[in-house]
Automatic annotation (TrEMBL):
<dbReference type="Pfam" id="PF00389">
    <property type="entry name" value="2-Hacid_dh"/>
</dbReference>
<feature type="domain" description="D-isomer specific 2-hydroxyacid dehydrogenase catalytic">
    <location>
        <begin position="6"/>
        <end position="317"/>
    </location>
</feature>
<keyword id="KW-0560">Oxidoreductase</keyword>
<dbReference type="GO" id="GO:0008873">
    <property type="term" value="F:gluconate 2-dehydrogenase activity"/>
</dbReference>
<dbReference type="InterPro" id="IPR029752">
    <property type="entry name" value="D-isomer_DH_CS1"/>
</dbReference>
<dbReference type="Pfam" id="PF02826">
    <property type="entry name" value="2-Hacid_dh_C"/>
</dbReference>
<feature type="domain" description="D-isomer specific 2-hydroxyacid dehydrogenase NAD-binding">
    <location>
        <begin position="110"/>
        <end position="289"/>
    </location>
</feature>
<comment type="similarity">
    <text>Belongs to the D-isomer specific 2-hydroxyacid dehydrogenase family.</text>
</comment>
<dbReference type="InterPro" id="IPR006139">
    <property type="entry name" value="D-isomer_2_OHA_DH_cat_dom"/>
</dbReference>
<protein>
    <submittedName>
        <fullName>Gluconate 2-dehydrogenase</fullName>
        <ecNumber>1.1.1.215</ecNumber>
    </submittedName>
</protein>
<dbReference type="InterPro" id="IPR006140">
    <property type="entry name" value="D-isomer_DH_NAD-bd"/>
</dbReference>
<dbReference type="GO" id="GO:0016618">
    <property type="term" value="F:hydroxypyruvate reductase [NAD(P)H] activity"/>
</dbReference>
<dbReference type="GO" id="GO:0030267">
    <property type="term" value="F:glyoxylate reductase (NADPH) activity"/>
</dbReference>
<dbReference type="GO" id="GO:0005829">
    <property type="term" value="C:cytosol"/>
</dbReference>
<keyword id="KW-0520">NAD</keyword>
<dbReference type="GO" id="GO:0051287">
    <property type="term" value="F:NAD binding"/>
</dbReference>
<dbReference type="InterPro" id="IPR036291">
    <property type="entry name" value="NAD(P)-bd_dom_sf"/>
</dbReference>
Length: 322
């Protein structure tokens, strides 16, 4: 019996590819440089499945050019790079990789927020440049985390994991804004309070963005929203770059209308807005919030489980469209 053909569209753990080879004829693009849309189209022709990430654009045009495709399995939780409606309309199953990265991503979001508030990158650069001459009372004095107000925009799994760290670990007051409110029994242990978006912006000492990127959330934080925030506040983004208007953010940071920011995601990544690069009060990291070794392995294995299920008559573990 001929095996289904699948494309693994990036460099991943070899043992996960070995698992896939037990079920499929695998074409492994074993590179870190993403495939161009044209390369992806050519490599996907005649394949039934693809193991992908957040960097491959799965568009209606691509699906039309690859009519054999039956399953798109992402190793990422974000799936804004996939036209889900177009996949569903063509009977292509899609899965993402939630849950396995929740705690690791929350750890990193918290670390980035703390780094911004306590000026860790900025002070390290200062020290490495040899600029440290003497201890000073105000040297890199930043904002406190403990006892402050944590604002969370997007209260899904990762938002809740961050709330838990803030409330239970650091004694923070947790406020959040989300389309739907948590159930009272979810709010109570965290002391979490739903507030309007404007209240969230005005009250948070540390605002963290963990919402999905959709047409509605594009630039959800722009100049008018930044103007509502405290001058002493920090903003951390571990969602997607497109949720923030980076020029407006750079302007606010540069003018001291916002104390600091921590950004793991960027609108044109891996290109970074030069206005952000020019600022000291922003901590910049290369989209690594879920990047612990065990979690990246778990993300890959979950995508492989989904691909195997989708193409062998099973049920995907974390399917997005059936
Ligand atoms: C995700 O899983 O969506 C992370 O942001 C990595 O892309």
């Amino acid at each position: 019996m001929t095996q289904p053909k699948v494309l693994v569209a990036r460099r991943i753990f070899p043992e996960v590819v070995a698992r896939l080879r037990e079920h499929f004829e695998v074409d492994w693009y074993d590179e870190n440089e993403p495939l161009s849309p044209e390369q992806l189209r050519r490599r996907l022709a005649g394949k039934q499945g693809v193991f992908a990430s957040g960097t491959e654009q799965i568009t209606a045009e691509l699906l039309d050019a690859c009519p054999d495709l039956r399953a798109v399995c992402l190793m990422t939780v974000g799936y804004n790079n996939v036209d889900l409606a177009a996949c569903s309309a063509r009977g292509v199953k899609v899965s993402n990789a939630p849950d396995v990265l929740t705690e690791t991503t929350a750890d990193f979001g918290f670390a980035l927020m703390m780094a911004a508030a306590r000026r860790i990158s900025e002070s390290e650069h200062f020290l490495r440049r040899g600029d440290w001459q003497q201890w000073r009372v105000d040297l890199f004095a930043g904002a406190d985390i403990h006892g402050s107000t944590l604002g969370i925009l997007g209260m899904g799994r990762i938002g809740q994991a961050i709330a838990k760290r803030g409330a239970l670990g650091f004694g923070m007051q947790v406020i959040y804004h989300n389309r739907s409110r948590l159930a009272p029994e979810q709010e109570a242990p965290l002391g979490a309070r739903w507030v309007s978006k404007d209240e969230l912006l005005a009250q948070a000492d540390h605002l963290i963005l963990v919402l999905p990127y959709t047409p509605e959330s594009h630039h959800i934080i722009a100049a008018p929203e930044l103007a509502l925030m405290k001058r002493t506040a920090t903003l951390t983004n571990i969602a997607r770059g497109g949720v923030v208007d980076e020029d407006a953010l750079a302007q606010a940071l540069g003018e001291g209308r916002l104390a600091a920011a921590g950004l793991d995601v960027f609108e044109g990544e891996p290109q970074i807005n030069p206005r952000l690069l020019a600022l000291n009060n922003v901590v910049l990291t290369p989209h690594i919030a879920s990047a612990s070794v065990p979690t990246r392995r778990a993300m890959c294995n979950l995508a492989a489980d989904n691909l195997i299920a989708a193409l062998t008559g099973g049920e995907m573990v974390t399917g997005l469209n059936g």
